[in-house]
Backbone:
């Protein structure tokens, strides 16, 4: 089943849990440096699973950037 997520949705969801404007996040920013922690990552995982995406925290932790996550989540 194709992903229901878009690149804009991924960026918006990440910005939402970080309480930032999506424009404040660059594609290659290390999201951990931006304040993302395990609790917020789990919140994102649950949000994206609810949207029908099979995602695992381990996959996200491997490369915590918007670019990597968008590629993983919208494939």
Residues:
């Amino acid at each position: 089943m194709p992903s229901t997520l878009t690149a804009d949705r991924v960026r918006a969801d990440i910005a939402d849990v970080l309480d930032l404007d999506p424009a404040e996040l660059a594609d290659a920013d290390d999201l951990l440096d931006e304040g993302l922690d395990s609790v917020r990552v789990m919140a994102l995982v649950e949000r994206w699973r609810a949207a029908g995406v099979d995602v695992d925290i381990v996959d996200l932790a491997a490369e915590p950037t918007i670019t990597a996550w968008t590629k993983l989540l919208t494939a």
Notes: The CA atoms of residues 18 and 34 lie 8 Å apart. The mean pLDDT is 93.
